[in-house]
Amino acid sequence: MAEPKLLSTQQIAEHNTAKDLWIVVDGQVWDMTEFAPEHPGGIGIILQYAGRDASQPYNEIHAPSLLNKTLTSSKLVGTLDTSTISDSWAKPPPQQNPKVQLKNEKPPLFTLLSTHDFESVAEKTLAPKTWAFYSSAATDLVTHKANQSFFDRIWFRPRVLRNIRTRDTSAKIMGQRVELPLMCSPAAMAKLVHPDGEKAIARGCQNKGIIQCVSTNASFPIEDIVSSLSPSPNSPPPLFFQLYVSKTRSNSEALLRQVWSLGIRTIFLTVDSPLAGKREADERVRMDDEQQGIPMMTGVGKPVNDKRGGGLGRITGSFIDEGLDWSDLPWLRRHWKGRIVLKGIMCAEDASRAAEEGLDGIVLSNHGGRNLDTSPPAILILLDLHLNAPHVFSALEIYLDGGIRRGTDILKAICLGATAVSLGRPFLYSLNYGPEGVEYLIDMMKDELSVAMALVGITSLDQAHPGLVNTNDVDYLVPRTEGHPYARKRGKPFKAKM
């Protein structure tokens, strides 16, 4: 193969119009003339860098491999002759909006003491749209707040005079040994927080011995995330994969084949999001040129502002099949031979159905309070299972997602029968500090869990049991029957003939 042609900045700068448009990305010169009008984020951002080096804005949003996958080799017209770079050519384009200077800088990582500190720093330092997307929840935020507050209404019943010198926080999740019963929940477009996005989370989780569940809407292809991990020939990658089923089933089938080929053997099928809830904080903050068209693993559902606002969750979920139901499980099993976990169970009846269908696990979750407001908090769903479907605890692994912010929250969930818990937003906020922030968060949660175990009076998680907690403050909210205890659907009122 011939060596790429060496091009000077003067040659590149001549191709600076919509009809003749070249840009430089990481030293490679690309002809974007045909692609620019089809760019999901609009032609404007590409035109700003016509005839210039677009590496910085490109790498802030896109995976490095995206150009090579999106464009044919014929569009790679050469490489940049770095000896010809001048100060005037290297300057940002004059029409580019200046970056907003944040008033608050991130404090040193070691000064953060809790997940709440990570959240506080994120609110002050993330881009406004990024903060709005990740922190937002549905309508009046009732469920979002209840996810956390209901943990505070469950009290411990500690045992004293126990030898707690040595404690073990480890657990097993789907047969994999982990350092603590904690997973990283799937979340979309983590590159909004940090250039390495999901890859940084994956490395941090691997280094600390826990599992990351990768979103269908990740900002890197799944193969890039897997390849970012340290090789481990004798064990599968410490990753699960979250699946949104596409309206175009062949897209999902191809994605499942790709995931399987990478050694991942467990998928989490999201079932609580046939469409997105109304997240008003996300809708109010519209996307700028760089945020529109953020790539996702699916390659569909591209974010673009519309008349309803700039809700990333709503716009990017447009590809999801709203018709998915229980009868589709045989289809899924035909295309996936590994373990299947349903993510988004909110009542005992559906948990029981999952066990009947022979699934491997369920996640008790209301999607972080982001979809149906006033749906039940996750810890209350766990109590619903104990009262109305206790058999599922021996049939399924049961995970709890939503409201976990402390090691004490983890221990309460384990005492009440959960296999493990998962965190979403705290991992994204910790990513603000890169993989080091992710590792710091995991260490923080492990330390809090270990201290809670000691003060409750246990030394390993298999000693946890419901007798160590008092749920009286929420017990009256647990449904007693499948139907309503007294309200009934009534017929239409009888009208006498006149």
List the helices and strands and how they pair.
Blueprint: E1 6-7, H1 9-13, E2 16-17, E3 20-25, E4 28-31, H2 44-48, H3 55-61, H4 66-70, E5 76-80, H5 87-90, H6 115-125, H7 128-135, H8 142-152, E6 155-156, E7 171-173, E8 176-178, E9 182-184, H9 197-208, E10 211-214, H10 222-227, E11 239-243, H11 249-261, E12 266-270, H12 280-284, H13 312-316, H14 329-335, E13 339-345, H15 348-356, E14 361-364, H16 378-388, E15 397-401, H17 407-415, E16 420-423, H18 425-430, H19 434-456, E17 469-470, H20 472-475
Parallel strand pairs: 1-5, 9-10, 9-16, 10-11, 11-12, 12-13, 13-14, 14-15, 15-16
Antiparallel strand pairs: 2-3, 3-4, 4-5, 6-17, 7-8
Helix pairs in contact: 9-19, 17-19
Task: Describe this protein's structure.
With 498 residues, this protein is α/β, with parallel strands linked by helices. It has 20 helices and 17 strands. The protein has helices at residues 9-13, 44-48, 55-61, 66-70, 87-90, 115-125, 128-135, 142-152, 197-208, 222-227, 249-261, 280-284, 312-316, 329-335, 348-356, 378-388, 407-415, 425-430, 434-456, 472-475, and strands spanning 6-7, 16-17, 20-25, 28-31, 76-80, 155-156, 171-173, 176-178, 182-184, 211-214, 239-243, 266-270, 339-345, 361-364, 397-401, 420-423, 469-470. The chain has an eight-stranded parallel beta barrel with strand order 9-10-11-12-13-14-15-16, surrounded by five helices. The chain is globular, with a radius of gyration of 25 Å. The model is unreliable at 96-102 (pLDDT under 50).
